[in-house]
Amino acid sequence: MASRGGNLSIVGLAVPLRVWVQRFAFLALVALAFALMLLSKAETAAVERARLAIVDDFVPVLYALSRPAQSAGEAIDAVENLFLTYADNARLRRENAELARWVDLALQLELENATLRAQLSHVPDNTPNMVSARVVADAGGAFFHSVLVNAGKRDFVRRGQAVVAQGGLVGRVVAVGERSARILLLTDINSRVPVIVLSTGDRAVLAGDNTRQPKLLYLTSTAPISPGDRIVTSGDGGLFPRGLVVGAVADVAEGRISVEPLVNFARLDEAMVLDYGLDGVLPPPERMPARDGPSPAPSK
Question: Out of 130, 147, 179, 232, which residue is the most buried by the measure of CB atoms under 10 Å away?
Fold first, then answer.
């Protein structure tokens, strides 16, 4: 009987305790969220370092978790490609015949181009150093479009470097840890890329707006832009090199010109970080000017 009474007393204490936890847990979480917000405002640099350290620790885990999903996707793609092989072969035969004709023309133009460059003492563009990285997580959301890759400072990745994939521009590096980096996509509302319309030579700025198709800004009202026009980086501002393919004009409506990026961000698995030796407009945090007081004088 004593044991039974003891059990009843424990149950009697557990029920009010559970009700108390359920009643005040939400308030505790809200208070914790406000405390983290205040801490992030007060110590922005410390929070940024802590966030990058946490991301570095979780990147290997995210990489391991992404492997099964990637393998399953590759298996599905293999099955789909098996059914399309016959049609692809017929198409490739036609394209091969067409390409053979263009190869002969390209060889002639290459010889002519080399001759003209030699006469003009042309200085060729620098060949970029490339770092291949795998996308391990989507670090964005409804209001922020970015991805995490498993390459960082130890792989010589720096802030401001251009990132490409699938033959087109993905975005730029905005944060770097030892083993990871965050890439700001072209579609993000904070993204601004100086571009040029190949067919007309008009310069503009490609501005992300958190939609699938960013828009062109600062085009003259008389610019003869039409759907299908190719868009490449202009190199203005020193952030991106000239000539990286961005995409094509998708729609020309009154007050808005939208661009369809060449990269399919929904199927972005791997990316290439390009280092052209340009500092760009994103110096590392240690070289940023101090917020309080004058900047220190450079050492002699």
Answer: 147
